[in-house]
Amino acid sequence: MNNIYLIGFMGCGKTSSGKKLSKLLNIPFLDTDQMIVETAGKKIPDIFNEEGEEAFRARETEVFRRLAEEKTCGAVISCGGGAALREENVTLMKQGGIVVMLTAKPETIYHRVKGGHNRPLLEGRMNVEGIAELMEGRLPFYEKAADVKIKTDRLRCAQVAKNIQKAIKAMES
Questions:
Q1: Residue 75, exposed/middle/buried by CB under 10 A (0-12, 13-18, 19+)?
Q2: DSSP string covering 128-156
Q3: Nearest CA among 153, 154, 130, 151 for reference residue 142
Q4: For 80, which DSSP code?
Q5: Alpha helices (runs of H) in the chain, residue ranges in sequence order
Q6: What pLDDT score was predicted for residue 126?
Q7: Which of 19, 28, 92, 123 is most buried (most C-beta within 10 Å)?
Q8: Contacts of residue 129, Cβ cutoff 8 Å, sequence gap at least 6
């Protein structure tokens, strides 16, 4: 079985829906952001503050290389919101499995993330307009990388997981 890589903007449900999908399919769940935190020994905002975004992106690419080298197979992998911005990451994801883009409207994203302070790129733009602006710049990268697109607005994580499962089955037939 191939990996299922979940990409998309922060707050679109990659981690929450990914955990439900892994249970539904009875396969492991991995989170690239969590893997970075574990190897760095510090939280993502601290990496951004101390080392900068470019260093974080380099760590992220290293995670994708490691997954490819270890031949991780048959897992649901939640990817950070910026993972699809690097061509090498996208190449590694496509070689390892199916890339599923989760989408949500800026208003939905804002509602989901407004209480958190662990998203460095939203500092100073924690509003619908700021989110929409950042999303707009990333959308072409997400679309280019995606094999499948799933909307998550107004859906519970379990329903998103079922929709992903259906879309993948449809691709395979």
A1: buried
A2: HHHHHHHHHHHHHHHHHH-SEEEE-TT--
A3: 151
A4: P
A5: 14-25, 32-40, 44-51, 53-69, 87-96, 106-113, 128-145, 157-172
A6: 64
A7: 92
A8: 106
Q: Give tens-digit pLDDT for 120-169.
A: 566 666 688 988 998 999 999 999 999 999 999 999 999 999 999 999 99
What's the pLDDT score for residue 99? 97
Q: SS3 of 34, please?
A: helix
Whether 163 and 153 have beta carbons less than 8 Å apart is answered as no
Count of beta carbons in the 10 Å neighbourhood of residue 96: 20
Q: Which domains does the chain have, with CATH numbers?
A: 3-172 (3.40.50.300)
Name which of 40-44, 111-115, 134-138 the model is least confident about.
111-115
Residue owning tokens 């307009």: 129
Please calculate the CA angle 160-22-57 and round it to the nearest 5 degrees: 85
Provide mean pLDDT across the span 101-115: 89
Kindly state the helix (H) or strand (E) to which residue 102 belongs, with its residue range.
strand 97-103
- Measured CA to CA, the distance from residue 133 to residue 130 in angstroms comes to 5
- Residue with the bigger pLDDT between 27 and 71: it is 27
